[in-house]
Amino acid sequence: MKSLQLYKRIWNISVNYYSKAYFHLIIMVALALLSSFLNTSVPFLMKIIIDKTHEKKLYLDTTGIFTLNNLYTLVTIYASVWLFSKLLEWVQNISSLYLSNSFEVSLLSFGLQDFLSIKKYEIDKIDIGKFVSDVNRAANAFSATNTTIFLILIPTLIQTFFMCWYLYKNINILYSLCFTLFSIFIFLTSLYINKRNKKYLSPIYSSRNHVNSFFLQKVANAYDIKTSNAIEYETNIFKRILQENVKTSFYNQSKLGISLIFQVIIIFIFLLFFMLISAYLFSKNTLSSGDFILVSSYIIMLTTPFLMLSQQLTKLGANIVALSNFQIYLDMSKDQLSKEKLVDKDYFYQFKAAFLSFGEKKLKNFDFQFIKNKKYAIVGESGIGKTTLINHMLGLEKLEKGQLFYKNIDITQHFSSNIFKEIAFVGQKSTLFNGTLRDNLVYNANYAYTDEDLLFYIKELFLDSTLNNYNLDLNTQIDDVYKKFSGGECQRLNIIRALLRKPSLLILDEPTSALDEKTAKKMLDFISSHVKSIILVTHAKYCIEWVDEIIDLNLLLIDE
């Protein structure tokens, strides 16, 4: 029941991103229904043809060439039905690829959006390597689960139904009933084995996640590893992790393999039993030659989907585990943004009797207004919590007590999406994305800019030489190039991006940390010519002298 509820939850998420899912699935089920009917009709037509060949008078009656009693007509129909069934299988395969990719993409799209909505304190605890593995695995698992249900399970059930119906009509109800019951037994046995196999899947995933996490962590910290001469040290650790992964995977995959062999043996018994029964009935003249071919064909036809179904049900257990791991992220606390409208005030932020936690220190009964058209510097020793204060103002962290307003909106508990229309933030860690230089500059901006506009900003922030050094223009893809940019170059590109949003308030976290004093002062003057209200976190003396008011956390924080 929990697995069904989980699947339903993921399904509801997916169809919000894949709007035509129901329509496409109806088409797929209709194709499966028609394909199953045609596939089961082929052996039946062969039975009629064989029975016809055993009639005492076998001749070609040209006057009845288009009747079902004519052998040549039957052969033509048989070949045509076979052809259509194969063409239909090809259409199904192409459609299933589209369907699978659509479901996979829909879950990946949601996974990114959901992750970006997770509260900051939750994100800080997430292992990014594990998250990437879990999301990709869940997307593949959901796609594979739908394939199993709609392209294997449902067609197999429909095909089994048609087979039983043909057997009932051409042999007898007892034979058809036994065939049905044995088919149900195989299906239920596969479900039971699949349920027991789940305990072998979690260790495989956990071990693989550990490998991916370690790998991504070391790739991300390649510079530190190289400069510490720790390449051999790290690779030796990774080898041990990989060896453990191989052992864990082999042990648990062996257990899964044994259960699959058991299912194959059950299918073999099914095949042997009905073939022997059919041979016995044929020897007693209870079955005609055509009936024997019909039964044999149906049994052989079912063994392949039964084997596929057994394999897929085993994988289905793995898929459920993957979706369960993905559900952990779905259940994490999310940011709730209101749509409350802004009413203009003479200030941007106002703290009222606010209590903020900064590790072992506290800011108590903090009352302060960030007035419009002023420049503020938040200062204090390293690690004291300057960025933490900014995070409260950006809605990423919450007050312990008291209230925090942005103009008329109380953002103590819920931030408003409308605030982002007025503010821009540039953090300590400068971020550039794959794409063109233009894409990076106008990222999330709601204004149109000409090439001349963008080049003006680039020149004013002393980045024209960067473009020349790397032979770049606004339309150049910088996917690989930006990794060669200096910290100062990345920082200034991020500042241009913020300025192009035309904010009423600009919040900067250590904006001059990668710049020399002369360049930094010119940049600050340029920024203030475009934005009149600025809050910056800084250690630089010249920045402190540049602002109108200082918030010194060294003087405000007290020990807990």
UniProtKB/TrEMBL annotation:
This is ABC transporter domain-containing protein. It is a multi-pass membrane protein. The chain crosses the membrane at residues 21-46, 58-84, 149-168, 174-193, 256-280, 292-309. Pfam families: ABC_membrane, ABC_tran. It is found in: Cell membrane. Keywords: ATP-binding, Membrane, Nucleotide-binding, Transmembrane, Transmembrane helix. The keyword RNA-binding does not apply. Its main location: membrane. Residues 26-318 form the ABC transmembrane type-1 domain. It comes from Acinetobacter nectaris CIP 110549. GO terms for molecular function: ABC-type transporter activity; ATP binding; ATP hydrolysis activity.
